[in-house]
Amino acid sequence: MTIATLTYFAGRGRAETTRWMLADNEIPFRNVGLTEPEDFEALRASSRLPFNQLPLLEFEALELFQSSAMIRHLARRGDFYGDEDTERTVIDMVAGAVADFAEPALSAPFQPTPAQARANLDAAMRKFGERFEARLADGREHVAGGRLSFADVVLAEATTHYAEIASDILEKNPWLAAHRERVTTDPGIADYLASQQRWPLADANHVISVAKVLRRALPPHFPNPDRFVTV
Ligand SMILES: N[C@@H](CCC(=O)N[C@@H](CS)C(=O)NCC(=O)O)C(=O)O
């Protein structure tokens, strides 16, 4: 039974943390992956995108925009948001750092070379990864608060993304690797990762598909970068 619909491009991108939170809550969902500019324009014309941005999550009579709000909504619904206000603030702060840490993985397919993408990941591992590792050292199971929170889920989503791009990247971070293993073997998340709902790792074709839907320019290293720009 599908009870949530997640509209985005035909890929993971900024909708992926919401997919992991839906999976953690074991909420069945449907991906609507836009591939044509007309589909995006129709959505914009419908006024269902308050800031003309995707993703859009339809869930229990709500239409949610902003992935940070989606994951918090799902965290509250599934009780993945700590037990009191101070703990929730810590979870929010750590989740904010995870969002910063996740950026180089999201931007990897937009980089001119794999070496540049890797250099960006390595820099973020030094800046953020080491700090997450320290929070998990000595067998601490959760990156924030005293039990599983959405910060753990988004961190495992980010480290999984990193490891898919650069398989050796967690080698020097055994606590992060163990944390990733724990979260990804959660039954809901494991099912999602093995399912048809999981888009493949983004590549140049994904970058082209997004630029086409948005009628935007491609990064300058692509051939004919303005091929989809119509105005
Ligand atoms: N902070 C927002 C960012 C959303 C966002 O930038 N969406 C992009 C696609 S990844 C978009 O819809 N861009 C079209 C636009 O801004 O006009 C979120 O996480 O939901």
Strand and helix map with partners:
Blueprint: E1 4-9, H1 16-24, E2 29-34, H2 37-45, E3 56-59, E4 62-65, H3 67-78, H4 85-106, H5 114-136, H6 150-165, H7 174-184, H8 187-193, H9 204-214
Parallel strand pairs: 1-2
Antiparallel strand pairs: 1-3, 3-4
Helix pairs in contact: 1-3, 1-6, 1-8, 4-5, 4-6, 5-7, 6-7
What report would you give on this structure?
This protein has 231 residues and is of the alpha+beta class. It folds into two domains: 4-78 and 191-214, Glutaredoxin (3-Layer(aba) Sandwich), CATH 3.40.30.10; 85-186, Glutathione S-transferase Yfyf (Class Pi), Chain A, domain 2. It has nine helices and four strands; from the N terminus they run βαβαββααααααα. The chain has helices at residues 16-24, 37-45, 67-78, 85-106, 114-136, 150-165, 174-184, 187-193, 204-214, and strands spanning 4-9, 29-34, 56-59, 62-65. Strands 2-1-3-4 form a four-stranded mixed sheet. Glutathione binds at residues 13-14, 52-55, 66-68, 214. Residues 13-14, 52-55, 66-68, 214 line the site of glutathione.
